[in-house]
Amino acid sequence: MAPYNDIVLFHYSFSPYAKRVIWYLALRGIEYAQCIQPPALPREDINALGVKYRRIPILSIGRDVYCDTRLILQKLEEKFPSGAIGASDPEQKAVQKLLETWTIDGGVFSRAAQAIPPEMPLLNDPKWVKDREDYMGRSWAKEDIAKGRPEALAHLREAFELLESTLLADGRQWILKTKQPTLADIE
Questions:
Q1: Considering only CA atoms, which of 64, 57, 60, 62 is closest in space to residue 23?
Q2: Are the C-beta atoms of residues 5 and 61 closer than 8 Å to each other?
Q3: Does the pLDDT of residue 97 top 70, yes or no?
Q4: Is the separation of the CB atoms in 36 and 29 below 8 Å?
Q5: What is the structure's pLDDT at 106?
Q6: What are the pLDDT digits (tens) for 138-152?
Q7: How many CB atoms lie within 10 A of CB 24?
Q8: pLDDT tens digit string along 49-92?
Q9: Shortest CA distance to 75 belongs to which of 138, 140, 25, 3?
Q10: What phi and psi, each to the nearest 5 degrees, are found at residue 182?
């Protein structure tokens, strides 16, 4: 049953995109219900919504359904403006948007996916492996993941070094030099 605000998050437990929404909801103290989904298609609960979107997470607020993590976070900021954690001034907004784009579109996420340990239990599930291969257009065979993992880890190390030697080099705890985490930190 959905909480009083009618928010339901459809996700599976290890989705990094769902984690962004979960962290956001936790930081904001926004109540929500969860509808845990299988990691591979089909997802009958989502099909019942009439949604033909394969990615996770999906968030419903009442009868409205939001399918992209960026849109989900934007809508939550709009729906719950009191205590919003998004950047407020133009410089902070630029840093927040840059981090969002860098992590999602700039290769950090895809490199993280390539760094998955070959012993990850889901890699033993042929249905999940086929789902990932069909969606991403590349092999998810354990041996191929093992071959590409060192390069992926090198790129991830570079990404963290960039953050630590620039935005975090002055010892700040949070990206925007705030007293508490913001949306930029989730990005």
A1: 57
A2: yes
A3: yes
A4: no
A5: 83
A6: 999 999 999 999 999
A7: 20
A8: 999 898 999 999 999 999 999 999 999 999 999 999 999 899 99
A9: 25
A10: -125, 180
Please state, for a pLDDT cut of 90, what percent of the chain lies above it. Answer: 84
Record the tokens describing residue 163, joined without a space. Answer: 């953050």
Q: Give this prediction's pTM.
A: 0.89
pLDDT digits (tens, 9 = 90+) for 111-132: 998 999 999 998 999 999 999 9
Give the separation between CA 5 and CA 36, rounded to whole angstroms: 19
